[in-house]
Write a structure and sequence with these properties.
Layout (H helix, E strand, L loop, with lengths): L4 H16 E2 L2 E2 L9 H17 L13 H6 L8 H16 L15 E3 L8 H4 L4 H21 L6 H28 E6 L4 H10 L6 H22 L5 E3 L8 E6 L30 H12 L4 H6 L4 H25 L13 E2 L6 E2 H17 L4 H17 L12 H5 L4 E4 L10 E5 L2 H15 L3 H20 L30 H18 L7 H23 L7 H19 L5 H28 L1
Parallel strand pairs: 4-5
Antiparallel strand pairs: 1-2, 3-10, 4-6, 7-8, 9-10
Length: 614
């Protein structure tokens, strides 16, 4: 199916308005359970498109589009919608703030025990996770931008007071989330002869070099990253090992939560108590990707233009940006290490920590690489090779290929997905884990991001074709009846042999699909790819058309021949338009010029026929 982000987003909004709002009031946990993560995801399904896409804005009631109002009529009219969103957002801030005025980021039902016969303790359920920190940053920025615009329209004093209180609470939550992300980041150093070292060396060694040469090359590549950490990283940094020992290898990124022994972050904003960390001080690929996505919103164009960060938040954002850049550089280097085959192309990827192996980890490394390619302007070779990786992952995940009987791929990647042991959480109760079923949405999002970077027609068409195939897969997975209809997730709709999978509303999957639609809308908002060959052809055609037009203007005209004058005026306007868009849309310029040449030739033929008759 073709990706139509406007129409598809409106369908999702209509379903959310129908199922999540009762008499204009958001019903928390009615579908899909409630936690700081799922509640933020539920709100982001509305707030993220409203903040990122001008046609979906809800902060200016007089400018709200008619089709948007029709989709959200279950919430209210153009005045009631923003008012009721303020109430919902205020409710979220209140629910996820402790009695000591400290924002909370508990994962709740997203955590589950490794042993199904055991039960997680309340202390474990209350643990903050990187997913919640990242989602809170995106939600807070969307809310602050929404309030900045909508407060200009407020006339009621009570609503203005509510909006002011919400703005203050949202700003506090934003700062707390940024502080928690700083305390969840870690740099882990280890010996090349350790299990982590052996796994890393085996992963990057695609040329059958000796282990000694691989270690030396890795140490050389890591040297500038070490220097950056020493020089610029001073705020809340957790380092495991001796950074000055250049013989040690390194990895960096985000753990699943605040790491053990993470130092307190000094901040002038009132964020309440900074909890003690329990997470293992080693990066997880999944949580690293989630953190990178959230941090990117801190320095988006919208955040800068609206001035959403106060002075203290700008300081914290700069510290997070350093970690964002370092992490992308590190994993991009690891993914493309060596001069021959990329380690990323050797699917599946094996993690250094839990020694897990999965196509999902290959996709996560590719996701970081995509972000890095966007940051540093990717080469055609980088894009071409990354496209091939995405296509291979779609095949292996049975998205673009048929599933065979008793195929374990579906349960390992889609439902319940990869299970991540949350090491360190056992200090408060039984061993616990996290399940990630978002392979399809992650693949779609990164494919669309790559498509927006590609300036070659061949790669662009391959990526768009792949994105449409993944969209086919995801659109079939919508719930077809009962609670949560037209939302996600019904995995058995595409994998009917998966008998254990029942349709249930997942805000995690629904929010990820919404993110993909926002990326798609931004992709389609870009100018089309400019072809040098088409530009050259269009320029030549314009030159010929201009010459013939000038010659026609030299011919004697018959008095009162309005038809001839009209044809020449139309031809002149089309040539002017063709010249105007030549650089940005050479194909359209080409087509317009062909129309001009055809009409001019018709005039020449008509004149010759008239001359013969005379």
């Amino acid at each position: 199916m073709r990706i139509r982000p406007r129409q598809q987003l409106l369908e999702i909004w209509q379903a959310i308005a129908r199922h999540s709002f009762s008499d204009g009031v958001l019903d928390w946990g009615k579908l899909g359970g409630s936690s700081s993560v799922s509640d933020a995801e539920q709100l982001l399904c509305l707030m993220y498109p409203a903040s990122e896409l001008p046609p979906f804005r809800l902060d200016a009631p007089d400018e709200t589009a008619e089709d948007v109002l029709a989709a959200l009529k279950g919430i209210g009219d153009n005045v009631e919608i923003p008012t009721r969103l303020i109430s919902a957002l205020a409710g979220f801030m209140d629910m996820h703030t402790s009695d000591t005025a400290t924002p909370t980021f508990s994962a709740g039902h997203y955590l589950f025990p490794v042993d199904p016969d055991e039960e997680l303790t309340p202390e474990q359920r209350a643990l903050g996770v990187v997913d919640s920190y990242s989602m809170s940053i995106s939600l807070a920025l969307s809310t602050l931008g929404f309030l900045k615009i909508f407060k200009r329209e407020i006339r009621r004093d009570d609503l203005r007071d509510t909006a002011d209180a919400l703005y203050e609470a949202t700003s506090v939550r934003l700062t707390a989330a940024m502080v928690s992300l700083l305390r969840s980041f870690t740099v882990n150093l280890f010996d090349a002869d350790s299990p982590r070292g052996h796994t890393l060396c085996r992963t990057v060694n695609q040329s059958n070099m000796s282990n000694r040469l691989v270690v030396q090359e890795l140490q050389r590549e890591l040297r500038p990253l070490r220097a950056s950490i020493k020089e610029y990283f001073t705020l809340g940094l957790n380092i495991v090992g001796d950074l000055d020992n250049n013989n040690l290898l390194m990895e960096c990124g985000w753990s699943w939560g605040i790491v053990q022994d993470a130092p307190q972050v000094d901040t002038t904003d009132p964020v309440g108590t900074q909890p003690k960390g329990v997470a293992i001080p080693a990066p997880y690929l999944y949580f690293t990707v989630v953190a990178l996505d959230g941090i990117a919103d801190l320095f988006s164009e919208r955040t800068l233009i609206l001035g959403l960060l106060n002075e203290e938040q700008q300081r914290l954002a700069q510290a997070l940006r350093l970690r964002w850049e370092l992490t992308q550089q590190y994993w991009s280097m690891i993914a493309r290490f060596g001069d021959e085959k990329w380690p990323l192309e050797d699917i599946p990827w094996r993690t250094t920590g839990q020694q897990q192996e999965s196509e999902y980890f290959s996709l996560l490394v590719a996701s970081i690489l995509v972000q890095d390619l966007d940051r540093r302007r990717a080469t055609d070779d980088d894009l071409t090779r990354t496209v091939a990786v995405m296509e291979e992952l779609a095949v292996r995940a049975k998205i673009t290929r048929r599933m065979t009987s008793d195929d374990p791929t579906v349960s390992l990647l889609h439902n319940p997905g990869v299970r991540l042991p949350l090491t360190g959480g056992e200090s408060l109760g039984p061993a616990m884990q996290w399940s990630v079923p978002d392979f399809s949405t992650q693949l779609l999002k990164r494919t669309l991001q790559l498509c927006s970077m590609s300036r070659r027609s061949e790669s662009h068409d391959r990526l768009l074709g792949l994105a449409e195939q993944v969209m086919d897969h995801l659109w079939l997975r919508r719930i077809s009846s009962g609670p949560g209809i037209r939302l996600w997730d019904n995995i058995s709709a595409v994998f009917p042999d998966l008998e254990t999978a029942k349709a249930h509303l997942s805000w995690n999957m629904t929010e990820r699909v919404v993110e993909c639609m926002v990326v798609a809308a931004n992709l389609f908002g870009q100018p089309p790819i400019r072809s040098p060959q088409l530009t050259e052809l269009a320029t030549s055609l314009l030159s010929e058309a201009g010459h013939i037009f000038d010659r026609e203007m030299m011919e004697p005209s018959s008095a009162g021949n309005n038809s001839l004058d009209s044809s020449l005026r139309i031809a002149e306007m089309k040539m002017a338009r063709a010249r105007q868009i030549l650089d940005d849309r050479p194909g359209t310029s080409f087509a317009l010029t062909m129309q001009v040449l055809t009409s001019l030739d018709e005039l020449v033929v008509a004149r010759r026929a008239a001359t013969k008759r005379a």
